[in-house]
Design a protein that fits this description.
Elements: E1 9-15, H1 26-29, H2 33-49, E2 54-61, H3 66-71, E3 76-78, H4 93-114, E4 119-123, H5 132-143, E5 155-158, E6 165-170, H6 184-190, E7 194-195, H7 202-205, H8 211-220, H9 224-235
Parallel strand pairs: 1-2, 1-4, 2-3, 5-7
Antiparallel strand pairs: 4-6, 5-6
């Protein structure tokens, strides 16, 4: 965290059970889909840990492989409660969206108990081209009320397609109400969150759900784990 920051940021990342993650990449990754999903999450966590505005990273996951791997990169692992009907492994369109946001709320509750007064930022775990400086730029904007005047409320960054959301941030005093999944850009805006339109954050906006997304991320420059897996997968296409 930088010296001039008024508060610390806790960044929350939900990670699905790897065997069920990134279904739209199955056409490209096949039986290596779980490997690609872990690579995406690992490079994302590494970038977040290195961000000077971030005091701590919480990964909410029930996956027995992803948890230890991401903990080794510096993340605090928060497993979902056993028997929680909002498990990240739950499937169906509505269930997946609900599970994602429920996991973020659970992680936020843990953060509020352990680190009261922290800002809360939810981030998708599939941003392999993310640079620490990009995340710092967005968190500074959210923390200082940019656009001017939105005060302590929520702010968000839309994905590169302009449909979804990659970052949702709430300074202390604001209500944390993540609405990820599908057309979340419109839902976050309708709920009163301020959209951050910032230059130089292409990696922060480039999530990876499809083969074309992966190609776009590679063009921007991805982390080493994603680069290794993508080199094999894209070489055959």
């Amino acid at each position: 965290m930088t010296d001039y920051a008024r508060f610390s940021w806790t960044v929350l990342l939900p990670v699905k059970v790897l065997a069920r993650a990134k279904s739209r990449l199955a056409v490209l990754a096949g039986d290596r889909r779980h490997e690609l999903a872990l690579a995406l999450a690992s490079d994302t966590v590494s970038a977040v840990v290195a961000c000077p505005e971030v005091a701590r990273v919480i990964v909410v996951t029930s996956d027995p492989v992803a948890g230890p791997r991401l903990a080794a990169l510096g993340a605090h692992i928060v497993p979902e409660p056993i028997g929680n009907p909002s498990e990240l492994s739950r499937e169906s369109a509505d269930g997946s969206q609900h599970a994602l946001n429920a996991a973020l709320l659970w992680g936020a509750a843990v953060a509020a108990r352990r680190w009261p007064g922290t800002g809360l930022a939810a981030l998708t775990a599939d941003l392999p081209a993310l640079r620490p400086a990009e995340l710092a730029t967005a968190l500074r904007a959210a923390g200082h009320g940019i656009p001017a005047g939105f005060g302590p409320g929520a702010a968000f960054v839309p994905d590169s397609a302009g449909v979804g959301t990659t970052l949702y941030a709430v300074p202390p005093g604001g209500e944390f109400r993540p609405m990820f999944g599908g057309a979340s850009r419109a839902r976050h805006a309708a709920a009163g969150a301020a959209e951050l339109t910032l230059d130089g954050i292409a990696g922060l906006r480039q999530d990876v759900d499809t083969p074309d997304d992966l190609r776009a991320a590679v063009t921007l420059g991805v982390g080493p784990r994603t680069a290794e897996v993508a080199a094999d997968l894209l070489a055959d296409v």
